[in-house]
Design a protein that fits this description.
Length: 146
């Protein structure tokens, strides 16, 4: 057996150690799948549940240093998944600017929300001093043109 490359026994009767690669590959794929699923769960919406309008030129967003303002179909507003009244919205906007002047404002309005509410939120964010104000949309699939 001196020329064989597999497992088996040595001349003294002891078993040779073998590294099985197939179970190792299974473990690697499991870790990869777990990592992918975990990273996909990190990109969850930060606002109230709304149906986002679709666009063809959307980009992925970075939630670090971002406050999300939601405008619902009924025209009510939210701040980071929490419904707020107008006065509370303005107070939170000013507080967020004081603690994070380089922060980003992300407006996610329902596609059927009153347009003037989204413009109001956009305008107030600019008045407070924010330079980075974005509208969140959902990227339209390539075959879904209206």
């Amino acid at each position: 057996m001196s020329g064989s490359s597999g497992g088996g026994t040595t001349s003294s009767g002891q078993k040779k150690a073998r590294i099985e690669i197939i179970p190792l590959i299974d473990v690697i794929f499991f870790l990869l799948a777990t990592f992918v699923l975990f990273t996909l769960s990190l990109n969850t919406p930060q606002g109230l549940p709304v149906v986002l309008p679709q666009s063809e030129s959307g980009e992925s967003r970075d939630v670090l240093g971002t406050a999300t303002i939601s405008v619902t179909e009924a025209g009510t507003m939210g701040w980071n998944k929490e419904p707020v009244v107008l006065d509370e919205f303005l107070n939170r906007l000013k507080q967020f600017y004081q603690t994070n002047p380089e922060g980003k404002i992300l407006i996610n309005g329902d596609e059927n929300a009153p347009f003037n509410q989204a413009i109001y939120a956009f305008d107030q964010a600019r008045i407070v001093g924010f330079k980075k104000v974005f509208i969140e949309t959902q990227v339209r699939s390539t075959g879904a043109h209206h």
